[in-house]
Amino acid sequence: MEKTLVLLKPSALQRALVGEVIKRFEQKGLKLTGIKMMQLNDEILNEHYAHLSERPFFQRIKDAMMTTPIIATCWEGLDAVQVVRTMTGATNGRNATPGTIRGDFSVSVQENIVHTSDSIENAKEELKRFFKKEEIFNYNHLTLPFLYANDEI
Ligand code: IDP
Ligand code: MG
């Protein structure tokens, strides 16, 4: 099944939203297959935000991501990338639909609580960037028959 990366940003830690965000993905039916706290540095952020390196706010978002540790998580499920992205909401919390994480908890474009992979290809790259192979776990989800129909999986 598909896997995707969710980073709980410093805004999630400072706002005491770590449990809330993890709860949402758990309750949706996604399987938590990796989780760790990390202090990010310039090197990993240059890679992670390479697509924004020419933007005027590049240094500022990197600095914001280093103000506290972050929590990196890996979630697995059918169409996990798209499911998580939908639950994330628009980049700017002020425009994000209520019911999404950013729509419910953010009023900012920068301080928007989570990073979530935006495509299957990027999810693969990003998971490699944040997790060693042995930090992603494979185990049976006992509720599987109640999460999906036989012909879906
Ligand atoms: P995403 O997080 O919704 O995928 P991206 O365009 O990949 O959005 O941008 C990565 C992060 O950079 C955003 O989550 C946000 O924290 C920050 N960011 C994006 N656009 C802006 C902006 O215009 N001003 C300030 N920060 C921004
Ligand atoms: Mg992005």
Describe, in plain words, how this protein is organized in 3D.
The protein is an alpha+beta fold and 153 residues long. It has one domain (2-146): Nucleoside diphosphate kinase-like domain (Alpha-Beta Plaits), CATH 3.30.70. 39% of the residues lie in helices and 17% in strands. It has eight helices and four strands. The protein has helices at residues 10-14, 18-28, 42-48, 58-65, 80-88, 101-105, 120-130, 144-147; strands spanning 2-8, 31-38, 70-77, 114-116. The protein has a four-stranded antiparallel sheet. The longest helix has 11 residues, at 18-28. The radius of gyration is 15 Å and the shape is globular. The model has no long low-confidence stretch (mean pLDDT 98). The chain binds inosine-5'-diphosphate and magnesium ion. Inosine-5'-diphosphate binds at residues 52, 57, 61, 91, 109-110, 112, 115, 118.
Task: Give short descriptive properties of this protein.
binds inosine-5'-diphosphate; binds magnesium ion; 153 residues; globular; alpha+beta
